[in-house]
């Protein structure tokens, strides 16, 4: 008798290995891609079968059996499992936690792929019941029975029934007891791709758009295309033509966007132009909604999927194209847990699948630009705005000569008045939410600090609170200084304070604030953006949420309140990020017939950065930054990995990194440099002390080999039990 196969199971625990199990009784044929319920220590956990083997390092009599097989057929294909393995290997992260990222929450919890739905239906006895007689004795029961009669023999699911008859359960109890109605459970039907209407024809493409479209069409198979177009140049129109080609060929398309806020406008445009309602995947959905979209993509029923970062793992058997909109956006990089780049994984997936990948941006990252220079990617430029719209005019406001009150200088206020008087719309941009960055004592100078972080508390005046934007701690707003008892006052400006100031200055105008504080209600961001795009708000106040890809036809003025935040940054990406932020938000102005204006408030108008940006645009900033990076050997000319640790004790946080440093020191060469360990710039956060160790290498293979050998060493070190630690490959945040 042959021995049973050994299942290699990935379990969501912080250990870089798979675990050996025997199949559950009666389930010998379970294969890779299926979920199993396994005993793990004293717990029961859902795991995913990654592979099968004929032997194990553990004696077969000591190998535990799976408790249950949860899937009759594999949930994930070989291609999907390949992407999971690649992600685990490249980012040096436990494969079980990669699986947890790739699967919807309900599947991680062991729920069935096809969720069950509770139905209520009328019985034969109920259909022959004398309704008038029942109505006299039990009017509520009669009302419910009538609804069920109208629904027919298939009945009605309980959620739909609740919408029609909110208190139906009390009446149903009597109907069940009399045999007039019954309950049953059925599997949810497979969602199908929804056709909304006939597709609308798009505008005629201009020359650069036509050239870009032809370049993409003429190159079959895998290729990465950077659609480098100024804001308003019509990048989405090029996407749409390529997407239609792929859909017409019977294949699927995946579109990745950086944030939920971009989703409503894009979905609406896709529906109008393609006549298809895409499956949508982002964190704002319920667990069931997310699973439904995932199932639809996996089965091929959804031929168009729009999602944020984690959608890159969505199974799509007929995938023919991946589009990454706003590829420069940092939110494509996960900053907690599995620290992956959705953009980079999308490119890897495209190569493995041999399909085209389109990256779109008005401000491409230097990494992508260098790939274009090296000939790895194809750069397609759209240098002019579509429809003949002119680029906005930039003007600097010297805050030394024109001091700001509540964040607003007189020249900016006057410009707002002028643009509103001419029928335009204004956007006031400040990438800092809350009322003010901190609270300060007017007498002794003490500032309100977080008790759990090396950080100042932010004033949220309307809530009467001080909040830490790093750990979430909150306390009542101080009235007087805790040290000397003197009066305290807000210092600096946040979006909330700007909104209050604008409401005072423009009391007769509608002002809409769009930031993560004001948009917490589900659907609020979509409603606010629709209002803004329709011209219903005269002045928009907001953070980065307003700068990303939105189209506001009436918007003619952009005011950038605090433009100096990035001028003296310590991160080597400071200039690149600041330029991206300014160019993106400036791009919202003047996208229709009237030329836009951008006013930048700065205390340093003579800084060379402004001449480079205004005269040469983002291209000049990027070219200078690339030259500096090449000379100093920073990415994209070298590779980085950051090892972070956090512990209740500062010594423990450093101790684990000391182990890592000592190990790497024995393998250090001219191609591998180790910096640290040092305290993190914010050394204490949420009550934990944080430290970091930076690896820099000109040899990617060497770097990954060192990390591959280092991870199990750290996992097995006793100090690791006291520390939260992570490996971040290709980090985008160093400070």
Concise description?
This protein is of the alpha/beta class and 735 residues long. It has 21 helices and 32 strands.
What does this structure look like?
It is globular, with a radius of gyration of 29 Å. Helix 20 crosses helix 21 (700-715). The strands form eight sheets. The chain has a seven-stranded parallel sheet, with helices on both faces. Strands 18-28-27-19-26-25 form a six-stranded parallel sheet, sandwiched between helices. A five-stranded antiparallel sheet has the order 2-1-4-3-5. The termini are far apart. 33% of the residues lie in helices and 23% in strands. It is of the alpha/beta class and 735 residues long.
């Amino acid at each position: 008798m042959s021995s049973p196969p050994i299942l290699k199971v990935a379990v969501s625990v912080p250990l870089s290995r798979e675990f050996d199990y025997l199949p559950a009784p009666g389930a010998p044929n379970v294969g890779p891609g299926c979920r199993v319920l396994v005993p793990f220590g004293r717990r029961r956990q859902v795991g995913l079968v990654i592979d099968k083997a004929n032997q194990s390092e553990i004696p077969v009599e000591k190998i535990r059996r799976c408790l249950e097989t949860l899937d009759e057929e594999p949930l994930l294909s070989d291609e999907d499992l390949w992407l999971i393995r690649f992600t685990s290997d490249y980012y040096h992260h436990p494969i079980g936690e990669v699986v947890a990222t790739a699967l919807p929450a309900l599947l991680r919890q062991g729920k069935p792929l096809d969720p069950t739905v509770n139905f209520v239906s009328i019985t034969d006895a109920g259909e022959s019941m004398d309704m008038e007689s029942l109505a006299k004795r039990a009017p509520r029961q009669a009302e419910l029975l009538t609804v069920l009669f109208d629904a027919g023999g298939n009945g009605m699911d309980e959620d739909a029934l609740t919408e029609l008859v909110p208190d139906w359960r009390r009446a149903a109890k009597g109907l069940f007891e009399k045999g007039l109605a019954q309950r049953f459970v059925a599997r949810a039907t497979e969602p199908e791709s929804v056709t909304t209407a006939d597709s609308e024809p798009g505008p005629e493409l201009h020359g650069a758009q036509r050239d870009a479209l032809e370049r993409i069409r003429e190159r079959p198979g895998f290729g990465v295309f950077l659609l480098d177009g100024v804001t308003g140049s019509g990048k989405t129109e090029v996407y749409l033509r390529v997407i239609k080609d792929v859909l017409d060929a019977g294949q699927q398309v995946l579109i990745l966007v950086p944030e939920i806020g971009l989703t409503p406008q894009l979905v609406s445009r896709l529906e109008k132009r393609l006549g298809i309602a895409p499956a949508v995947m982002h964190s704002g959905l319920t667990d069931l909604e997310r699973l439904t979209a995932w199932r639809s993509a996996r089965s091929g029923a959804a031929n168009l999927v729009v999602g944020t970062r984690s959608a890159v793992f969505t199974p799509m058997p007929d995938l023919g194209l991946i589009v990454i909109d706003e590829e420069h956006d940092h939110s494509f990089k996960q900053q907690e847990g599995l620290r992956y780049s959705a953009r980079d994984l999308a490119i890897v997936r495209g190569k493995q699948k041999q399909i085209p990948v389109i990256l779109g941006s008005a401000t491409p990252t230097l990494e992508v630009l260098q790939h274009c220079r090296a000939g790895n990617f194809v750069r397609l430029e759209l240098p002019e705005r579509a429809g003949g719209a002119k680029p906005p005019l930039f003007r600097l406001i010297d805050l030394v000569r024109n001091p700001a009150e509540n964040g607003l200088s007189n020249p900016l206020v006057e410009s707002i008045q002028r643009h509103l008087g001419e029928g335009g719309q204004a956007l006031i941009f400040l990438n800092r939410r809350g009322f003010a960055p901190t609270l300060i004592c007017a007498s002794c100078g003490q500032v309100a600090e977080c008790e759990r972080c090396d950080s100042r508390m932010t004033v949220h005046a309307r809530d009467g609170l001080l909040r830490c934007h790093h750990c979430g701690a909150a306390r009542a707003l101080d009235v007087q200084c805790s040290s000397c008892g003197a009066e305290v006052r807000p210092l600096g400006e946040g979006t909330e304070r700007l909104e209050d100031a604008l409401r005072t200055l423009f009391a007769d105008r509608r002002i809409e604030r769009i930031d993560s504080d004001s948009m917490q209600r589900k659907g609020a961001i979509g409603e606010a953006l629709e209002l803004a795009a329709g011209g219903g708000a005269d002045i928009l106040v907001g953070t980065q949420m307003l700068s990303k890809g939105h189209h506001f036809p009436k918007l003619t003025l952009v005011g950038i309140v605090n433009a100096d935040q990035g001028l003296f940054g310590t991160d080597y990406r400071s200039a690149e990020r600041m330029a991206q932020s300014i160019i993106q938000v400036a791009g919202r102005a003047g996208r229709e017939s009237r030329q836009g204006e951008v006013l930048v408030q700065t205390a340093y108008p003579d800084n060379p950065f402004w001449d480079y940006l205004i005269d040469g645009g983002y291209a000049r900033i990027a070219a200078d930054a690339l030259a500096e990076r090449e000379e100093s050997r920073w990415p994209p000319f070298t590779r980085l990995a950051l090892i972070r640790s956090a512990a209740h004790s500062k010594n423990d946080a450093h101790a684990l990194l000391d182990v890592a440093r000592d190990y790497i020191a024995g393998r250090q060469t001219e191609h591998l440099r180790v910096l640290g360990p040092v305290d993190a710039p914010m050394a204490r956060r949420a009550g934990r002390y944080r430290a970091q160790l930076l690896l820099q290498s000109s040899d990617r293979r060497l770097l990954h080999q060192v990390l591959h050998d280092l991870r199990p060493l750290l996992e097995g070190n006793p100090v690791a039990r006291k520390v939260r630690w992570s490996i971040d490959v290709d980090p985008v945040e160093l400070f």
